[in-house]
Amino acid sequence: MALPHIFEASWPDPAKLGADAKSAAILLNEAKETFASHLKVRSDEINFLGEPNLGFHLGISGLLGPASRLVYSNIDRMEVFAIADSLSDKSLIRQLQVSNTGQADFSELSANDVAVIQLCNRETGTIQSQVNLNCQSIFVDATASGTRISLPENWSTALWDSTSWAGPGGLGILAVSKKANWKNPLPHLDGRITPGPASLPLIVASALAIDSWVADEKNLAEKIAAINLEIRSFISKNIPDSDLAPHGADHLLSVSFLYVNAEQLVTALADKGFAVDSGSACNATNMQPSHVLAALGLLTQGNIRLTIHHATTFDDVTTFLETLKSTVEELRG
Amino acid sequence: MSNSHQLDQLDCLGKRCPLPVIELARKISEQEIGYKVILLSDDPASAPDLVAWARMTGNSVEVLSQSSFEITKLANN
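Output (structure tokens, whole complex):
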């Protein structure tokens, strides 16, 4: 279905009466079923969010009781840090230091804890391997992993971002398990889980995107893994004084170059047609280096992070790597 | 047997990353193995980056305070 048609069919409020509203409600239900089948949750556990990052607050704060302890890692998203920071009893906060491969040790959990598991780190691709935890409530940050990594069995709440399956931005999916002890942390008068309503056209477009993304991923995962290895091997062999983050998810890669100003590197690469992001301080609005790189003991200066898309080709990568090598050499002078 | 008062100092206060690490590398490049220098830097990236630099280049760094670091040259790069 093309986007103009989606807008045409999904303008009515699915909650209202009438034929148009009824067909909009059917679209919404079909979308829920689609997401449920790919994300392996029940369709009545699915909720849509117009602001994906609001899902951290809803998903985590909704699980916190007055005496529960929040356990998370030092490579979690800043949204999680902000929730911890807002808790008045600091004895109920436990920040775990990850190993240099990004592994958090959740072995000392108690039953009353609320644990935050980041399946995949969006900056470095680090994958958390210990996910079946011994506590009552688990929030799963699946915003970077999308459909690539399945939920741990005893999840309570989980958050995805539509962009992780190349869907439209500005749409998050928050699943609240029927078994979870969850209470809406926002002011509310009824049983709703999200303030809503999220944009139905975006929901429908994202459902189409996840269908085609999952189908493509089956054929393209191998290529993406090979591209990741190719980039790693080229950088190790040809660009001295580079610090590659450990290999995690195949579609993400982070590397830092000694003696290089990241802002200049990102700008120079953008001028040559390559869009990359950076975790270096000079590229951050708060002028702080990435807390993820620092937590992993990785170099924070001269950092770039790459996302390998389905459409990325080996030819693109070859051109990119030659450009990267010469640009790093130029900037080092 | 030296203490930090007698060591060379490299003042990079107010300089942003990656300048402190670049100036440090330049400073020690002409020195002998075992050379020590105190680097002063208040850039928030310096603490993690000096540790990473030491790991990558085979040198040593001791964090003395939030903005001072004792560097020992252990390798020729």
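Chain A has a mean pLDDT of 94.
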